[in-house]
Amino acid sequence: MSPQGRHVVREDHFVHRGARLAYDDAGTGPLAVYAHGGFVSRFVEDGMGLFDWTPVLDAGRRLVRYDARAHGQSTGGPSDADYTYPSLADDLLALLDHLGAAEAVDGMGASMGCATVLHAAVRAPERFSRLVLLIPPTAWTTRAAYAHANRRSAETVAREGLDAWLGKRRQQPPAVVSDVPEFPPTPTEGVLPSVLRGLARSDLPPPAKIARLRLPALVLAWADDPGHPLSTARTLAEALPGADLHVSETRADIRTWGERIAAFLVAPQRRLVTPPRRN
Description:
By secondary structure, the protein is α/β, with parallel strands linked by helices. The protein contains eleven helices and eight strands. The chain has helices at residues 42-48, 54-58, 85-98, 112-123, 143-160, 162-168, 192-200, 207-210, 230-239, 251-254, 257-266; strands at 9-16, 19-26, 31-35, 62-66, 105-110, 128-134, 217-222, 244-248. Strand 1 (9-16) and strand 2 form a beta hairpin.
């Protein structure tokens, strides 16, 4: 659902590295920033009805959601390097600068957005207070097959066009989200190959680097999705000190994620002890 109702939603944008990045800003209180998944946008996710952000706003958070470079209402050019996870993380950190976020913020992201948040947190852990990692994407040992498929998809779009690629990529969605409507990708046909190739060049940070983050984390995953395998979610939950993992096997349970996120964000922070360095 869109953060609406009694919460006023403000639309704005900023310019970073040649792109106009659009975002919405709702609620008041400590800042939480959300990054969406690949090929969609804020408004597409609202149309899919996957995540309800109203509980987060009702819990007293200022929620900023933005369209990733070349997605939705944001612009972007045909440069593969702009769509790697580290580059997308640079956009997120620039958004925090634009918002004047002097205090650490709650970083939240789904799929590609999850990877964006993790790379930003590894690069600048002091900018974040908590992490909410939704449907972590395939990573590490399971990443190679995804990268190969993305490179082939980029070739298909560039050579045969968007419709040809869409016709070839028809896949049965995981049963847990089988009722979610499908939407065409929001990057334009001219930019989509670069987005695909940039994601193919990407991976999550190594688990050893993630383990150095002394941040409370909530990992939310769903079952039986090869693009978002439970192996990634479980490895993240094991690597992040004190992380909580919740796996949904029904659509009804996914609808509880908004309340789960809100409860996590307002809960007293547990003290995470930094382990001694090994010589």
